[in-house]
Amino acid sequence: MIIGYTLPAKADVIYQAFNMPFQEVRNQLSELKADGFTYIQVSPPEQSNPSDQWWGRYQPIDFTVLESPLGNENDLRDLIAATHETGMKVLVDVVLNHMADYPPYVDTLNYPHFSAQDFHPRASINYSNCNEVTEGWLGDPPSLPDLNTGSPYVREQLQNYLSHLLELGADGFRIDAIKHVSVNDMEQILRVVPEDKYIYGEVVGADCNENSTYTAIHNVDLTDYGLLQNLKGAFGLGGDLRSLTNNPGSLPGYNAVTFSKTHDTVPGGDLEGGFGFDPRDQMLANAFLLARQDGLPLIYRDDASDPIVQAGANFHEQLVNEPQYFRNGDEITNGANSPNLLFVERGDQGIAIINKAGEPFAPSSLRMPGLGEGCYQELISNSTMCVNSDRSVQNGLNVPGRSVAFFVKQ
How far apart are CA 315 and CA 383, in angstroms? Predict the structure, then answer.
């Protein structure tokens, strides 16, 4: 079926520079630009738990000081300026819900600029209780002090932090654990962010209707964990790629940040057991995300150099305004209506063919009923496929096993 937008499509692709020092990211900017990325997302820059482990960056100590193992304020400012010179933009990952589990602060609740009165009482979270979701402490047992964002003073401190990042040139934010801050409080906090800045929030699960309530404020998009669960099933052993033509539980495309991997789902991540899957299947899932019009794809740093991702980002950018259509494989060639094949047309200008099977997809005859007459370049192999006026293909097709082909009209 054809799926179009009621809002403008996003040509952007986000590179998640997870836990990367700012200088290291800066050294890769020209390569990332060439690979088709438009946003660089950096990890939280505030003074945080000094641990050299990644989770330390998600445990703030002082929002007024930008210094961590990733770099200092000057490093971040220089990275943002250099990114803007390439034409790309910078998203800053921010933690607005809680402070660090780090003594002596966690014992006394006397953090720089915060004291005990600025926190909710220590309590665990029952995720079916919406008040507990926004007022309880994260951790099991509860260990991350939960800021009382209902306090005007607390909101002001968080607004000052966002304003400081905007002054440095930040183009938007990823809001960690957004569902743990009430909708009303988050709406107040985000009033300092101009409408032209991009914001998305992390929501894992939506027991309290988060997917509809948070997207209603400040044009906030959300992480699409519903789609990730569908990807895991479809690309996993015995899965059916055709199920991805309809994704129950996923977000509308114009509100979704889509991904096959994040720092939480990699080996050792907090959500690996629920969302991690075979590395090659996961790369093919990236191809699906980049083939669609729906969603704003986020690519984890370790995947960025893969040829599938590089070609897919190019495909995504070139065909952003073309509607998507999932073609029945039997319309391509007999026997192609298979759980291991998926055909994603983009208007009459291109097609992505995903092959999950171990053997090549190389039919002796085929046709492309949705494509216009002309020749199409494949963005990984640079091969050419030419479509005749009757939509037959004159020079064949070969999509290797466990791979993908992205064709764009020349």
Answer: 15
Domains recognised in the chain with CATH numbers: 2-321 (3.20.20.80), 325-409 (2.60.40.1180)
The contacts of residue 277 (CB under 8 Å, 6+ apart) are: 231, 232, 235, 236, 285
Residue type, 100: A
Catalytic residues: 176, 202
Task: Tell me the β-bridge partners of 146.
Answer: 98
Enter the tokens of residue 42: 């950096």
Quick one: CA dihedral 185, 191, 195, 198, positive or negative? Answer: negative
- Render pLDDT for 89-116 as a digit per residue (tens, 0 to 9): 999 999 999 999 999 999 999 999 999 9
pTM listed for this prediction: 0.94
Bridge partner residues of 71 (DSSP): 68
CA–CA distances in Å: residue 218 to residues 191, 193, 212, 252, 387: 8, 9, 13, 17, 45
Q: Is 84 in a helix, a strand, or coil?
A: helix
